[in-house]
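Q: Please design a sequence for this.
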């Protein structure tokens, strides 16, 4: 840019050697394996690359900073909810959808009570186990429970006090067990996070919608649709028993159809059923949404 990189408004830019288009942006946002491949030297050549220059803070002593070549990939490798971007902007009220394939349950402890952990089990142990996730890391990382695997690095994302998460998980599990949509409203003091440029100090009114099985919703479905779902327990809905509705509502991000050449496809019926459950969750909690959004 010809002006200072901390300026707002329009900037005059020299034409890039290679235009960065919407097509590039959409493609890069879908490169979920990008972080994994970037860390494995032999796959570096398939990771998208571009020159990027930063928008500098007003307090910066440097007026300009030259662009640098970066490997680019899915932003979900660092933060997968979008909440931190809203807090950067100073949002005070947030409706956050957690569209995840991770149920509120433990494989290692099938009868795990989120409200009272068994002896010898701690939240640090539960939330750091990538082989037995009991809640989506995009939730727990905001409360200081770090998580990382070969392609996810949720290690700088704390914005809420750690002790505020267990009571939320307890309430979320109770909603699930009651057959209700897991929709929960809470207020949190935002902690400073210099890594993301979040000043903190303010409170945020958070309405979280967590994708979980709602037996109340499923009971409202036509009989033919209920039969198509197969077993009543979502964990028992295999491809053999439930076909395209296997695992509903926890459809896999990749390989849901279990067809070799269909990596990310969802059928119209799968998408429509997910949309119907999301609509049900909102309508059942309409008063909360109206109050939050004014």
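A: Design:
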């Amino acid at each position: 840019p010809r002006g200072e990189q901390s300026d707002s408004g329009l900037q005059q830019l020299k034409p890039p050697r290679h235009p960065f288009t919407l097509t590039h942006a959409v493609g890069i946002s879908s490169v979920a394996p990008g972080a994994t491949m970037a860390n494995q030297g032999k796959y570096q050549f398939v990771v998208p690359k571009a020159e990027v220059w930063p928008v500098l803070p007003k307090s910066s002593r440097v007026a300009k900073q030259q662009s640098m070549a970066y490997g680019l990939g899915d932003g979900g490798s660092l933060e997968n909810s979008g909440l931190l971007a809203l807090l950067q902007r100073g949002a005070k009220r947030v409706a956050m959808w957690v569209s995840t394939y991770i149920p509120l349950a433990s494989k290692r402890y099938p009868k795990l009570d989120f409200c009272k952990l068994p002896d010898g089990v701690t939240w640090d142990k539960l939330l750091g186990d990538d082989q037995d996730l009991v809640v989506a890391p995009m939730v727990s990382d905001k409360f200081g429970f770090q998580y990382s695997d070969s392609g996810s690095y949720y290690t700088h994302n704390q914005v809420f006090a750690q002790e505020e998460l267990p009571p939320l998980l307890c309430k979320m599990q109770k909603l699930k067990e009651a057959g209700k949509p897991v929709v929960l409203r809470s207020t949190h003091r935002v902690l400073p996070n210099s890594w993301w440029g979040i000043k903190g100090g303010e409170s945020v009114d958070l309405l979280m919608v967590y994708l979980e099985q709602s037996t109340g919703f499923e009971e409202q479905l036509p009989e033919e649709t209920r039969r198509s779902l197969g077993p009543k327990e979502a964990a028992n809905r295999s491809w053999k028993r439930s076909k395209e509705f296997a695992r509903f509502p926890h459809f896999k991000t990749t390989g849901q159809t279990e067809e070799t050449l269909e990596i990310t496809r969802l059928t119209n019926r799968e998408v429509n059923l997910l949309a119907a459950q999301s609509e049900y969750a909102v309508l059942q909690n309409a008063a909360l949404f109206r109050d939050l959004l004014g």
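Q: Thanks. Anything notable?
A: The chain has a mean pLDDT of 91. DSSP finds eleven helices and seven strands in the chain.
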